[in-house]
Amino acid sequence: MRRLVAVFLLALGATAPAGADEPFRCVLKEAGGLSAVEAGTAVGLICDDLRRESGGQGTFEIRLGVLGSLVNVTATRLDTGESISVRAGGLEEVPLASARIAEALVHHRTLASTQRVDNLLVEETREARVKRGSVKFTLGVADLESIGHGARGAGFSLGLTYATPRFALPAEMRFAWDDNAYPEPGISLFSVSLGGRGYLSKRDVSPFVGGGLGLLWLDAHGGEYPYPGGPSSGYFQAESLGVAPYVEAGVEVLRLHRGRIGLHVRADFPLAALHSEEIEVWSEWDPPGSAPRVYPAQSRYVVPVSIGISVAF
Fold first, then answer.
1. Which end of the chain is more exposed for a tag (fewer CB within 10 A), N or C?
2. What does DSSP say about strands 279-281 and 274-276: parallel, antiparallel, or unpaired?
């Protein structure tokens, strides 16, 4: 112990000349967590760089501290009141930090302005932590209702979702069709969509709301095809392909697990109505020159609504 104290005092003596009126003075004020030998070596390096950079002018005070593997170095120029603090990645990085401290403190610069391609510190090149999400594959089944048409079907969906604790970005492909007997109303659907979903809590079970934009193909049909002597109206056949925004709401469970289950209701809103063309029907028994029977064109705005369950894993 006496030997360590002697080495420490020797280091202080080398960096702090006894004469108070000396043009250059550099002293170690504090060395928390370092041995006398380590502190003496570090302050000797810093004071040497300060002396060289300042031309042997000025009064400086050095404080050292250890936090885990980091060494915090604070150098203060007492005659101007300026101070520079650096977190070095261990004692091995003190020589690199020392030269930059001296340049910044003597020439009234910031530490960042002393950066060069060959003198960056570990703390300056440390990769910043970011919140990370996860990509999950989704598989779902759903019941399909059609507001404005009255048909009903079923289908399934495939997709990928980027999920975080607060939001998700689902990309989904959906297929749906009916198995109704002719001439009952029927509907078929195919869509590819991309959207966003916001969770209302970070708990294992959370409600969510969302929306997005998709490309929607929709086919709706119903009623008997026109024929001579058949019904005077009721037949409808139309399909469309276009952009359709959607909204959704639901609840997701098992969010703290790798696999999740979601229950949702989703409505797609096509930008245009479906149009069934006008149909003219002639009968071979009609007198020559008689007018055909006309089934007028029809338009229906159909909103497909799916109620389903999905699994993400």
1. N
2. unpaired
